[in-house]
Amino acid sequence: MSAVALPVPGVRVGHWTDPVARTGCTVVRLPSGSVASGEVRGGAPASRELDLLVPGRLVREVSAVVLTGGSAFGLAAADGVVDACEAEGIGFPTAAGPVPIVVAMALYDLAVGDAAVRPGRSEGAAAWAAAGSGPVQTGLVGAGTGATIGKWRGPGAARPGGLGCASRSAGPLVVAAIAAVNAAGDVLSPGAEPDAELHGLARAPGDRPSLGTSTTVGLVVTNGRLDELGCLAAAQGGHDGLARAIHPPHLSVDGDAVVAVATGEVPATADQVRTLAVLSFAAAIRQAVEA
Predict the structure, then answer these.
(1) What are the helix (H) ranges across the chain?
(2) pLDDT band at 156, cuts 50/70/90?
(3) What pLDDT shows up at residue 289?
(4) Beta strands in the chain, from DSSP E residues, in sequence order
(5) What's the domain range around 163?
């Protein structure tokens, strides 16, 4: 493991990790007033509240984002984060009190470690409680604990993935990315050419990865001031960065999803943030594997 700074003020990250069962979850606590949107490009997503982030919906703000292992089971980790937000009075204001808006995205790690152990309510609460403003622990930690890559090449070809973090800036504007990398594809070094032989895709259908056994999920967060459409463009930039760093990307067995969050401290355009999101998300994916 290693640690990487997350230079966006007010954003805090915490993990819950089970290195024996090889699963975990990561919680990103967001400043009040953070605006978000997101996009799914993979064919096998497991998510919570992503429809709420479509531009034009009633709620513009999110309280926290959860990245988790455990496939659809792991989405229960968001319940613990909702409980913690409620206890602190955090959420969308309603007549009956604040309602926490917690977005969650899960990856499939059940085929490694102990499939009976998955992040749940108490594990999500533990990751929330562990969230701090210091450097983010990366590697086989949190949502990246049981992550693997290279599964498109067939059984036995998988290698460790992980959770990565990176950032890029232009003057006072900062765009950071956190990625839990559990791709069916390979992670490419900068400038590397993809494998032209397409080993995995050339295999007979019965030898290809099983549906839902992969997924890279992540977060782009900026101190820039964007509306929901600008955040959607930033999330799309994150996916573009994913496609630079992973080959092949967005397969039917990947549930690839990216959420983008703007804390609103620095004037910015959607194009500025999207450009930096491409670079930071690709770098976060590579850092996950290096860590």
Answers:
(1) 71-74, 77-87, 121-130, 199-202, 228-245, 270-290
(2) confident
(3) 96
(4) 2-4, 12-18, 23-29, 35-40, 47-48, 64-68, 102-106, 136-138, 148-149, 159-160, 162-170, 173-181, 186-187, 216-225, 246-247, 257-267
(5) 2-290
* CATH classification of the domain holding 145: 3.60.70.12
Q: Phi, psi (5° rounding) for residue 181?
A: -105, 105
Helix axes 121-130, 77-87, angle to 10 degrees: 50
Total number of domains constituting the chain: 1
Q: What's the whole-number mean pLDDT along residues 259-270?
A: 97
* Closest to 131 measured CA to CA, from 223, 27, 217: 27
> For residue 218, what are its two tokens?
């992540």
Q: Using alpha carbons only, how large is the chain's radius of gyration in Å?
A: 17
Rounded to the nearest 10°, the torsion over CA 43, 195, 145, 120 is: 0
Q: How far is CA 178 from CA 33, 66, 98, 103, in A?
A: 20, 11, 27, 14
Taking alpha carbons only, the member of 290, 23, 263, 284 closest to residue 141 is 23
Six-digit token pair at 127?
């990751």
Looking at residue 152, the DSSP 8-state letter turns out to be G
Q: How far, in Å, CA of 158 to CA of 117, rounded? A: 21
